């Protein structure tokens, strides 16, 4: 994956960083072949979380310049521009394009959150098995489950007008518990995920507040349903907090990790309440639950590292910053991750979604950041050179971060596949 121009200074570390099999512990579906160039999903989104008119500026970022260079090399376009890359990819058979992007990554298994918006455009999670050695496993997005349960219940409440508020909530509570329990015992499900960071913030109330007045939050959802013409978007703090607590309780019973979107996201999040530090009371309240903090919690990476160091049940994913953050920024983030985090508690992911290039860039840049920076600046190789680590220890850390930690945390039972 990384062209070897000279003999690497640390050959075993180099080999592990660039060739060891990887478990992508958090990603999303690719677009279906018939929707590969859908007008509502512009390709520029592969290098930025921006949306709308703000996405126009993403092509002027270091992330875009680097991505253009790497993709032009992958496609053998010899220094093509970003527009040249886009033109080329649109002319390649879609399955071939996916294979060309994913085969070099060394991704053995994908844990796929299939609750991303626009499900009608997304490929089924099992469709992705054709690109990896091990079958894809699902990550269940709990807010999507809750919305799917609430919609018909509120519809019945609005249309029949003979359902009490308490009955509405009790019906929802029962169905939520039943559905998440079915998911938890499904062998194709590796864990749960919450996007409460987007909806009402990470400052989740750790104790049940059902003794309070539920009339107001229930009626707020009913009014939202009516105003949005039958569509429910769960951004009601009472319900959001309740859904998270319910999922955590069920996850504990069935030993399933719960991923939390933290930090880096689009303009739908409140940056103020996206720091994982807000989760501290919840982490304390559920000591047997496995919390996975996603996306390096950027720009709150050090706060996330602190939580992993003082709570046995907290793990840190260093994904999504590839390719959204510059190369130097990525190396800085990894340094912050390993400043304090126990190295058996760090996980890697692409946050790949919609476009196969997101998987490619998310992998090649992560592997580069784990080993070698430009102009001789190193991350793991730097601490080896300074004798803070032996090369063997650094190899163990890299291989654990890419594969073994996720394999253990999600109980996948996989063996690293390095080809026939």
UniProtKB/TrEMBL annotation:
<protein>
    <submittedName>
        <fullName>Amidohydrolase 2</fullName>
    </submittedName>
</protein>
<dbReference type="InterPro" id="IPR032466">
    <property type="entry name" value="Metal_Hydrolase"/>
</dbReference>
<dbReference type="GO" id="GO:0016787">
    <property type="term" value="F:hydrolase activity"/>
</dbReference>
<dbReference type="Pfam" id="PF04909">
    <property type="entry name" value="Amidohydro_2"/>
</dbReference>
<dbReference type="InterPro" id="IPR006680">
    <property type="entry name" value="Amidohydro-rel"/>
</dbReference>
<feature type="domain" description="Amidohydrolase-related">
    <location>
        <begin position="241"/>
        <end position="373"/>
    </location>
</feature>
């Amino acid at each position: 994956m990384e062209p070897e121009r000279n003999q690497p200074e640390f050959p075993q570390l180099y080999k592990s960083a660039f060739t060891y099999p990887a478990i992508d512990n958090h990603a999303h579906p690719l677009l279906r072949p018939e929707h590969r160039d859908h007008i509502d999903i512009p390709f520029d989104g592969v290098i930025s979380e921006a949306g709308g008119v703000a996405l126009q500026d993403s092509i002027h970022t270091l992330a875009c310049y680097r991505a253009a260079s790497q993709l032009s090399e992958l496609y053998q376009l010899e220094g093509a521009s970003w527009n040249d890359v886009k033109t080329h990819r649109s002319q390649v058979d879609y399955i071939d394009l996916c294979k060309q992007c994913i085969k070099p990554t060394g991704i053995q298994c994908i844990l796929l959150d299939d609750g991303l918006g626009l499900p009608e455009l997304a490929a089924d999670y099992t469709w992705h098995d054709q690109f990896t050695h091990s079958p894809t496993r699902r990550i269940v997005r709990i807010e999507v489950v809750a919305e799917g349960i609430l919609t018909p219940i509120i519809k019945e409440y609005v249309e029949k007008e003979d359902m009490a508020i308490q009955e509405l909530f009790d019906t929802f509570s029962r169905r939520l518990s039943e559905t998440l329990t079915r998911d938890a015992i499904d062998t194709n499900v590796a864990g749960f995920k919450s996007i409460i960071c987007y909806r009402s913030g990470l400052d989740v109330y750790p104790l049940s507040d059902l003794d309070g007045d539920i009339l107001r939050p229930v009626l707020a959802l009913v009014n939202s349903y009516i105003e949005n013409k039958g569509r429910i978007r769960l951004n009601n703090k009472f319900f959001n907090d309740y859904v998270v607590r319910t999922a955590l309780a069920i996850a504990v019973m069935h030993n399933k990790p719960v991923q939390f979107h933290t930090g880096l996201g689009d303009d739908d999040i409140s940056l103020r309440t996206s720091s994982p530090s807000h989760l501290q009371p919840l982490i304390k309240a559920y000591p047997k639950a496995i919390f996975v903090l996603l996306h390096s919690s950027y720009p709150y990476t050090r706060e996330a590292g602190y939580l992993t160091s003082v709570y046995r049940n907290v793990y840190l994913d260093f994904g999504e910053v590839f390719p959204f953050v510059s190369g130097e920024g990525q190396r800085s983030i990894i340094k912050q991750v390993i400043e304090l985090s126990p190295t058996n508690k760090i996980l890697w992911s692409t946050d790949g979604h919609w476009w196969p290039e997101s998987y490619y860039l998310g992998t090649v840049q992560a592997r580069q950041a784990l080993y070698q920076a430009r102009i001789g600046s190193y991350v793991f190789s730097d601490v080896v050179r300074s004798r803070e680590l032996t090369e063997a220890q650094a190899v163990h850390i890299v291989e654990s971060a890419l594969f073994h930690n996720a394999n253990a945390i999600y109980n996948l039972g996989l063996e690293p596949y390095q080809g026939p």
